[in-house]
Specification:
It is a single chain. By secondary structure, the protein is an alpha/beta fold. It contains 15 helices and 16 strands. α6 packs parallel to α8, α8 crosses α9 and α9 runs parallel beside α10. It starts with a helix and ends in a 7-residue tail after the last strand.
Length: 425
């Protein structure tokens, strides 16, 4: 009988989870493992080698557990539209662009590194950087990946924004001097299908993870211009990118340009006000929508002469219509048009548009991860996923202000911020 008792005790001890020296244990007061899943109270998360090993009900007896019993833990945030190397300049946006092109690369890189660190501390563990006039984002991405610089995981388009002559990034349209035009000539400018294929290949060769396709906003400024880009040019960009395993994010400011990008097969549509026809086509193709609402609000006064006084309101309506139509809505700040400190406003604007709280969270987590093709590793908190998580003082499923209460940030199992210093006794 005693022998049997020893055997039972031994079996129970063997079956009980053990904590190893290389494991990090976290006690979550509330855990939102995924935006679509119910929140769970009193959870233990065990992390090793940058990955979540297991999640258990209740709290463990680990003496060195990180005590976040006061907080709500959610997956790390993903910003799908950032320009971390562009500093928001007051006044003339042309000068902001010119300085981004002309500033010493060391200055641009150091400034961007500071912004990247601030983004990470705000809870953004992944960003998609869609355009970089200074052309230092690939090096910054690699420095972060090596651990030389603290910052979010970066998915970069590099220095190129693929667009045709006469488009938004044609330096002639910026009204610079001839000398300044040489500084501002983007490597992504192309004409004709074969030239546009070559532009995509150049971006790929230089390390792009995603292709930024920029359609001209000229139809908004000059209604008499019916078309600048030709369908075969856009199709060449998207087809070449997809053949290289890259997704395409299409900048479009008007619904007619969005329609062209959707027809060409772009994976995400950035900024544009969308019509019912646009949304039906996106639903069919599987494209997602990044409305960048806070940026739209900020630039609305400047755009009023061209787009009407309800420019921002149109974006709110498009965002709600996209949600109602079943088109994935993604969090995108358009950092560069806004400052780092303004990023949490995008959560507020998504809620203002009428998105339910869980859809707001989903826009910056699992929906964004899916749009990146990275759902297997980021966007939710499950065993086998990257240990990217944030802790907030309140629940984002109850109050959008929660996104301003981040007190803890972990990326790839490493703690980058912990304003909650207590540990379990």
């Amino acid at each position: 009988m005693i022998l049997a008792l020893y055997m039972l005790v031994g079996a129970a001890v063997a079956a009980a989870p053990t904590t190893h020296a290389d494991e990090t244990v976290i006690h979550a007061g509330v855990l939102i493992s995924e935006a679509d899943s119910p929140a769970r109270e009193k959870q233990t998360i065990v992390v090793a080698n940058g990955v979540i090993i297991r999640i258990e009900n209740g709290y463990s007896n680990a003496a060195d557990a990180i005590d976040l019993s006061c907080c709500v833990i959610a997956p790390g945030f993903i910003d799908m539209h950032s320009h971390v190397t562009i500093e928001n300049g007051e006044g003339d946006p042309r000068m902001t662009l010119l300085m981004a092109y002309a500033a010493p690369k060391s200055q641009s890189a150091l400034s961007a590194a500071g912004r990247a660190r601030r983004l990470l501390r705000m809870g953004f563990t992944t960003i998609r950087n869609l355009g970089d006039p200074s052309n230092v984002s690939s090096d910054l991405r690699d420095a972060i990946a090596r651990g030389d610089v603290d910052g979010p995981r970066m998915i970069v388009a590099g220095g190129a924004q693929i667009g045709v002559s006469g488009g938004d990034y044609d330096p002639g349209g910026l009204r610079f001097s001839e000398e300044a035009e040489k500084l501002a000539l983007t490597e992504g400018q192309c004409d004709g299908a074969e030239d546009c294929r070559a532009a995509v290949r150049r971006a790929f060769r230089r390390g792009a993870d995603v292709i930024k396709l920029r359609l001209s906003s000229i139809s908004a400024m000059k209604p008499g211009v019916k078309r600048l880009e030709h369908p075969e040019e856009l199709e060449a960009v998207v087809e070449t990118a997809h053949e290289l395993g890259l997704r395409v994010a299409a900048h479009a400011f008007t619904s007619d340009r969005a329609a062209m990008a959707i027809a060409a097969g772009a994976d995400t549509i950035e900024h544009s006000v969308l019509t019912a026809e646009n949304l039906a086509a996106m639903k069919k193709s599987g494209a997602a929508y990044t409305p960048t609402l806070e940026a739209a609000r900020v630039v609305a006064p400047m755009m009023a002469p061209f787009m009407g006084a309800d420019f921002y309101e149109q974006h709110l309506q498009s965002t709600k219509a996209a949600y109602d139509a079943g088109v994935p809505v993604l969090f995108g700040s358009d950092l560069g048009a806004i400052d780092v400190d303004e990023l949490p406003n995008e959560f507020v604007q998504l809620a203002e548009a009428g998105l339910p709280p869980k859809i707001v969270l989903k826009a910056a987590t699992s929906a964004a991860a899916k749009a990146l093709g990275m759902s297997e590793s980021i966007g939710s908190l499950k065993p086998g996923m990257a240990a990217d998580m944030v802790a907030m003082e309140s629940s984002p499923l109850k109050d959008v202000a929660a996104y301003r209460t981040v007190v803890f940030v972990m990326k790839d199992g490493r703690v980058f911020r912990n304003d909650v210093t207590r540990t379990e006794p």
